Amino acid sequence: MQGTEYGDEALKQAMKTELKQRLLEAEKEHRPLRIYCGFDPRKADLHLGHTVPMNKLRQFQDCGHEVTFLIGNFTSLIGDPSDKDILRPQLTPEEVAENGRTYAEQAFRILDPKKTIIRYNAEWLSKLSFADLIKLASNFTVQQFLTRENFKLRWEKGDAIYLHETFYSIMQGYDAYAMRSDVQVGGTDQLFNIVTAARKVMTYMGEKPNIAIILGILPGTDGVVKMSKSLGNHIPINTNAEDMFGKVMSIPDSAMPTYSRLITRWTPADIKVIEDGLKDGSLHPRDAKMKLAREVTASFYGESEADQAQDAFIRLFQKHDVPDEVPETIISRDQSLLDILVACQLVGSRSDGRRMVEQKGVKLDGVVLTDGKEPLQHEGVLQVGKRHFVRVKFA
RNA sequence: GGGCAGUUACCCAAGUGGCCAACGGGGACUGACUGUAAAUCAGUUGGCGACACGCCUUCGGAGGUUCGAAUCCUUCACUGCCCA
């Protein structure tokens, strides 16, 4: 139950007890538990926040349970109302297929591909009739939706709440029923969908309600707000080891416990050792964060790449050296510095380049350059800011 | 269907005829400092440029009024509220 967050101790205890019972039942029936988590194929770019439930799925997988990675290609026509952007255009079937594919690909950095079942919820949702929907919907009241935090806020603010958004929960509940799910994993923003909607729908359809594993929300690099791409505080999965390592290093110290619990492979005992070390001063916060960054990076890119990323980080930010691998660009001898900066994409525009030069952010082999109009005196490593390098050579 | 309010740069949000490339906040970027790309402080944050506050593009879309508009008018689109 590490990293879970129910916001209500009674609910947590209830789920814990139910999970134990269900495990015993399954054992008697000689079957694994059916676990699933749904993913919205709207956004193909996954970040660490998305991997929180995947880590939990992986744990179940390692215990021999049956894990389904459900791609919500039908529900994505609506968009989860817990998302702020409700007015995004509908995706074409091609886009959904493509996103779903890349989604699964990224997910398999964590999940075991051989043990993971991939399903699409259009398989059953597209077959429901209007009459079916009415019957399902009759289990819910408008008040239940209006007391939900995200609808409540929008209601109070006078923002739009579309009727079809309420279907989202019902559909998700039907997913759980259609798959005869034992356990459903999701973030705290899924509490209503999993606990209220899914359990209600399953009970109504004559099935045993699924057990909710509700996980905490991973804060972004600011350490406070939920990680999201639109807020610009995300750490993407499809990047490289060095970038991921660095980005994890940039989280505030206060976010370390949450990261440790939600996105590492560490056991509660492992985490306790680190936290005790921090408490009694035997472990430096910076070193603790390095461990964390290394662990997170290793879980995606493997141990050796993570080690290399750590070395590069130390060299670059603690010793201020040039990184090992620097992209190389051939330039002509008479190009002005500004032209070179733009050509190497070290700056966004010439105006941007001028600013960088004025702010003493442009260096050639460690020496600050002050004139953007001049060509370079010699070949070398051109640096903009702390972390953008290009090795320039004359043609 | 009717009435009212709104649509501003990456996001939030001022601005109601010239001093607006547009206050402020967030974010991002640069520098100093440091235990890191943290915190703090300072600066920058449309593009071009012979670097002169000179030119070009931007304030939902399209027209119009005016020497001159983000600011006024017309119209279209979208959103919210109230009434039906």
Task: Walk me through the topology.
Elements lengths: L8 H20 L5 E6 L8 H15 L3 E6 L21 H15 L8 E5 L1 H4 L4 H8 L4 H5 L2 H9 L5 H16 L4 E5 L3 H14 L6 E5 L25 H9 L6 H8 L4 H13 L4 H17 L1 H16 L9 E4 L5 H7 L6 H9 L3 E3 L2 E2 L11 E5 L3 E7 L1
Parallel strand pairs: 1-2, 1-4, 2-3, 4-5, 6-10
Antiparallel strand pairs: 7-8, 7-9, 9-10
The structure holds one RNA strand of 84 nucleotides.
Describe the structure.
The chain has about 400 residues and is of the alpha/beta class. The chain folds into three domains: about 10-215, 3-Layer(aba) Sandwich (Rossmann fold); about 240-320, Tyrosyl-Transfer RNA Synthetase (Orthogonal Bundle); about 330-395, RNA-binding S4 domain (Structural Genomics Hypothetical 15.5 Kd Protein In mrcA-pckA Intergenic Region, Chain A, Roll), CATH 3.10.290. Helix content is about 45%, strand content about 10%. The chain has 16 helices and ten strands. It has helices at about 10-30, 50-60, 95-105, 120-125, 130-135, 140-145, 150-155, 165-180, 190-205, 240-250, 255-265, 270-280, 285-300, 305-320, 335-345, 350-360, and strands at about 35-40, 65-70, 115-120, 185, 210-215, 330, 360-365, 365-370, 380-385, 390-395. Strands 3-2-1-4-5 form a five-stranded parallel sheet, sandwiched between helices. Strand 2 (about 65-70), helix 3 (about 95-105) and strand 3 (about 115-120) form a beta-alpha-beta unit. The longest helix is centred in the first third of the chain and has 20 residues, at about 10-30. The protein is elongated. The N and C termini lie far apart (about 60 Å). Residues about 85-90 have low confidence and may be disordered. It binds one RNA strand of 84 nucleotides through helix 10, helix 13, helix 14 and helix 16.
